[in-house]
Amino acid sequence: MQPVVHLQDIRKTYRNGDLEVQAVRGITLDIHTGEFIAIMGASGSGKSTLMNTLGCLDRPTSGRYLLDGVDVSSLNRNARADLRNQKLGFVFQGFNLLSRTSALENVELPMLYAPRRVSAREMRDRAMRALEIVGLADRHDHLPNQLSGGQQQRVAIARALVNEPRVLLADEPTGNLDTRTSVDVMGVFQRLNDQGITIVMVTHELDIAHYCKRNLIVRDGVVVRDEAVVDRLRSEEELAKLSHAEARAKLTHA
Fold this sequence. Notes:
The protein is of the alpha/beta class. The chain has a domain at 5-94 and 168-253: 3-Layer(aba) Sandwich (Rossmann fold). Helices cover 37% and strands 26% of the residues. The strands form two sheets. A six-stranded mixed sheet has the order 6-7-8-3-9-10, with helices on both faces. It has a four-stranded antiparallel sheet with strand order 2-1-4-5, with helices on one face.
């Protein structure tokens, strides 16, 4: 089966005057439909540059990138933007929601930039379906400041899903969340992945990476480890453990 993502000897060099920084030094990687991958690495390891390459936000200095069979490196800026809109969904650490816009309207935004014109009725229907998937249809008319951090991230996930992307890219999606909310959000990702959605996530949290199926460790611009997750965590089980621990703590302090 053809991988949904194929990177072949990807390299990225940044130049600042006479200074040359090799952020990525020759990464070859295949990602298949239905995978759930965590990319990890210290600051300066190249993981962010790799993620920007996967997201068609940054063009590699050399190498080949095929996204769903399309050679990204051969596309101009406008064509890359269209491909990004059609094939990729993005979830960020800071949610990036418009503060004066309802959850529904935030989810509708990617459709405004789609190459194919979408009617207002279809936009609303698709946005509502995406909110239903993440369990927030009943909050569709709420502004971001009327939602918890976890609910805001769910809206961001719904927005990333609304154009039915081939790959969902998540950049530190739990970085601004407490432990319980982080586990809850990882449960959303796991349920989406169970439905066949391909997810690639950057995280610096080892426990969060254990909710994924595959971990890539990046160091000095290369992948130094690529391994399946053993003893994978499941959100439902971890939430039950947290509830049990909280109940015991209340009894202890009663």
